[in-house]
Design brief:
This protein has a single domain, classed as Alpha/Beta hydrolase fold, catalytic domain (Rossmann fold, 3-Layer(aba) Sandwich), CATH 3.40.50. It is of the alpha/beta class. The chain starts with a strand and ends in a 9-residue tail after the last helix. Helix 2 packs across helix 3. Helix content is 35%, strand content 20%. The protein has seven helices and seven strands, in the order E-E-H-E-H-E-H-E-H-H-E-H-E-H. It has a seven-stranded mixed β-sheet with strand order 1-3-2-4-5-6-7, sandwiched between helices.
Length: 256
């Protein structure tokens, strides 16, 4: 499994908090290069190590291959921290879109398997398989992330799996209590907006410390496009602030 490690200082120094980042692309597209800039910014600004994970993609590798890879990456950081210069007691997960889905699912697996995470950063995550929210209906075409394309990607990824499986739809997990504290970022004009915000509400109702922030006037993928959307840079600063608070690190001078 290809991974790319980012650190604000070379290996051999003090162990750093670590963030495992899972890219988007509907579980079908994308890779480590697509989120390279974001991972560099997170490492530099939050003062943490970032592991950018190239998990297996559908349809060649349908569910649960991506889940298994995401979990393997987190487990490796905790069990083999010297490989990454990581503090195994300060590990978080993050992801955007389908990667946000994998980050949320991995946080559930971590709780169930006795691994304590410091935080989960979920950027416009996929949290359900229903595709029946108001935002799906309102923004399905003409806003960047096409509803038809996303549905095809989901079908390729899901295969014959039960759509109620919480590893596909964390919103359907029977119990979210005890999960890592969370940050959920959504975009106003995004088909995934409502399910991401519904997940944040369920986390809060389950007693999980969570902050939800919707960015108005932007579309899906804005977080990765600060050169186009000012809100992308604002959201990155917010994400850094949340990670710094979770890790107890200091932001880089001049950063967030």
């Amino acid at each position: 499994m290809p991974v790319r490690l980012y650190r604000p200082e070379p290996l051999g120094g003090p162990a750093l908090p670590a963030l495992v980042y899972l890219h988007g692309g509907g579980w079908v597209l994308g890779g480590v290069d697509n989120v390279d800039a974001a991972c560099r910014d997170l490492a530099a600004e939050a003062g943490c190590a970032v592991l950018n994970v190239g998990y297996r993609l559908a349809p060649e590798h349908p569910f649960p291959a991506a889940v298994d890879d995401a979990w393997a990456a987190v487990r490796s950081v905790v069990r083999e921290p010297a490989l990454y210069g990581a503090d195994p007691g300060a590990v978080a997960v993050a992801g955007d879109s389908a990667g946000g889905n994998l980050a949320a699912v991995t946080a559930i697996l971590a709780r169930d398997r006795g691994l304590r995470l410091a935080h989960q950063l979920l950027v416009y995550p996929v949290t359900d398989t229903a595709m029946d929210t108001a935002s799906w209906a309102a923004y399905g075409t003409g806003y960047g992330l096409d509803a038809g394309a996303m549905a095809r990607f989901a079908d390729l990824y899901r295969g014959t799996a039960d759509p109620d499986d919480p590893r596909l739809a964390p919103l359907r997990a029977p119990d979210l209590a005890g999960l890592a504290p969370a940050t959920v970022i959504t975009a106003e004009y995004d088909i995934l907006r409502d399910e991401g915000e519904a997940y944040a509400r369920r986390l809060a109702a389950s007693g999980v410390p969570v902050e939800l922030r919707r960015y108005e006037g932007v579309v899906h993928s804005f977080f990765l496009l600060p050169e186009i959307f000012d809100a992308g840079g604002e959201a990155m600063k917010y994400a850094v602030q949340r990670l710094v608070a979770a890790f107890g690190t200091r932001p880089r001078e001049g950063g967030a």
